[in-house]
Amino acid sequence: MSVSTIEKERAPAVEEGILIFIFADMCMFALFFITYLMERNADPTVYIASQAKLNQTLGAINTLILLLSSWFVVLAVKALKRNAQQACAVFLASAFCCGAVFIVNKAMEYSAKIQDGVTILSNDFFMFYYIITGIHLAHVVGGMVILLVLFINTRRGKYSANNIAAVESGGVYWHMVDLLWIFIFPLIYFLGA
Predict the structure, then answer these.
(1) pLDDT tens for residues 15-69?
(2) In this structure, is the dihedral angle defined by the CA atoms of residues 74, 181, 120 and 109, taken in order, positive or negative?
(3) Is 1 helix (H, G, I), strand (E, B) or coil?
(4) Global pTM?
(5) Domain ranges of the chain
(6) Can you say how many angstroms the Cα of residue 190 is from the centroid of all Cα atoms in its chain?
(7) Between the CA atoms of 124, 125, 129 and 130, what dihedral angle is there, to the nearest 10 degrees?
(8) Where does 14-189 sit in CATH, by number?
(9) Cα dist. 179→52, 123, 165, 185, 193 in Å?
C-alpha cells in the first residue's frame, strides 16, 4: 500500500465548503461570547440577577439531548461505513427527534420567560440571552433540515460506504451545533451565578 493510498483512506470525507462555513460560524459565535463577557464584566449584578431567572434544569436537559443527538449521528456514520443504510436511517431519525425535543424545550423556556414579562428589551443580559440562544436555535432548525434530507436520501439508497461525504458533512455541522450549546449553556446559565 502506497503512502498516497493510506492518506486517502485516512482523509475525512467532509466537504471543504462545510468546514469553511463552520469556521466562519464559530468565529461569529466567538465574537458574541467575547462581547457578552465584556458587557457582563461591566455590570455583573444585573447579569447574575437575570441569570437566576433562567430555567437551568431545561438548559441541562437540552445539553443532554444534544449530546445524545450527536451520539446518534456518530452511530449513523459508523453504520453507513458498514453499508448498513437501514441502521444509518434509524440513527439519523433519532438525532432528528432529539433536535425536535430541544426545540420544544426551548419554546417552553421562551414562553415561560415571555409570560413573566421577560423579553429581549428587559435588560442587556436578556438581549444576549435571546439573541445567542435564538441564533443557536436557528442553527438547530437548519441542522434538522439537513438531518431530514440525509434521512430521506439514505432511505432511497443514495449513500453507502463509498459515498459518505454528505452524511459526514451533515454530521460535522450537527456536531458544531452541539458544541456551540456546550459553550452557551455554562456561559449564559451558570457563569458567576
Answers:
(1) 888 999 999 999 999 999 999 999 999 999 999 999 999 999 999 999 999 999 9
(2) positive
(3) coil
(4) 0.90
(5) 14-189
(6) 19
(7) -30
(8) 1.20.120.80
(9) 24, 27, 21, 10, 22
